[in-house]
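Please, is this right?
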Amino acid sequence: MPRIFIALPVPEEAKNELELAQNEIKRLNERVPIKWTERQNMHITLAFLGDITDGQAEQVKKVLDEAAKRPGFSIWLDSLDGFPDLNRPKVLVCAAAEEKRDCAKLHKDLEEKLFALGLEFEDHIWRPHITLGRVKREWNNPNGLAAMPIEKINWLADKIELIESELAPAGPVYNILQTFKLTP
């Protein structure tokens, strides 16, 4: 059974800015063990489905085909953040922002249609973000995160990707199973 998630890809220009942020966080917090997200794995997760059957994967593809019948939308890098919060992060992220809530509408639409297929989701409030790294031990009051500027790189989110995640000792390996182009 493949381990699957649905995501929006992040363009190279935004990845450049995110890598700069990662490097600055490393410089300011050298002793903190963090498993950093590799550049090729940066994305905005719309839905994490986990282990699903091949039959469920085919149903998910039909849902994504239908969901892609909408125009692309503008989204941008906004600010550094952390989960559960920036003062005691377990996960470092860059929040993504949008003007018309099209990304949030896409997420909600996917969640409802996938739930109707019997797929379950993590019980938390969804916020669009790109994971920068996962903290390996307790970390209180990280140096420089709250004040670190992020260039507000804007891009057109014009495709959805269905991605398989293979867990490997060095970290996850992502394979794009299918890309669904949003209607222009």
In short: The chain has three helices and nine strands. The longest strand covers residues 73-83. The two ends are 34 Å apart (CA to CA).
